[in-house]
Amino acid sequence: MYRTLTLITFGLASTFGLPALADAQVINLYSARHYPTDEALYSDFTKATGIKINRVDSDDAGIIARLKAEGSASPADVILLVDAARLWKGEAEGMFKPVKSKILEAAVPAHLRSKPTEDGGTAWFGLSTRARVVVYDKLKVKPEDVDTYEELADPKNKGRVCVRSGSHPYNLSLFGAMTEHLGAAATEIWLKGLVDNMARTPKGGDTDQIKAVASGECGVALTNSYYLARLLRSTSTADKAVVDRVGVVFPNQQSWGTHMNVAGGAVARHAKNSANALTFLEYLVSPEAQNHFANGNNEWPVVKGLTLDNPALKTMTGGSFKSELIPISAVGMNQIKVQQMLDRVGFK
Ligand code: FE
Q: What separation in Å is there between the alpha carbon of 86 and the centre of ligand 1?
């Protein structure tokens, strides 16, 4: 799991008679990002700063469990997670060290980071955004019948809806956002409507939902935008057939906009190399890193005004779309309430 870079660094340092400064050459990064394109980003950081990165890869849940088990002995300096509900959970469990950074505060819009602490620190920052979109069967479903989240629960879409487990963080975040927009009572009625409209019991991941729409099993499904973008960029014949059959809608363009989730980062609570950790987070909002970071997984940067060179994103959106502007921290916080609603309405 750990690479041997630290050893190499210290070896070189002693060879040249340099002091092995604990805070000078290394960060330990716990990352839930597992996109091959991030590799170049990390090596560019090391080239620019001389700070080596020791990476531990796991999924969001695995990282949170590991941090919990390690407690104050954790070697983690920086944590990257890929969902607002998980970032909120990490914050709530005291796993992050709130920081102050003019660079990060200027780069990341206030609604895409955690709520400031009493002394003005920020526990985590969104670094890229992903939309939770609707895909539909072009042969059987009219886009105007599925162009809002609310309509998915309308009886006209009975027997059509497919979605992964309600308790998956991507759905907890969407449903948490709906709770902000509609209030809890109306959101629970909406969730019940979704359950009533399901084509099948929730199963599989987002890509499985898109494929089930393409096979005709489902009329409409929810997915994170980058899963569709991946299929759009795929050269496989099977994937091409899938994207030919499905249409995509960025919901709620006439109201509050499409739900946006974030992947984000934080300095670890017990970081031994916190100055380097902050340097790394600040590097991730530089224009080059933002473009790379977002494009690599077909997401959107959090930094405004960058020109994106990603044909799949252009194809999907037709250029631009309206995204919601509610505080993503509130979205994460609603997940406990949402889980109770899911249990009450029988959303598996
Ligand atoms: Fe994902």
A: 12
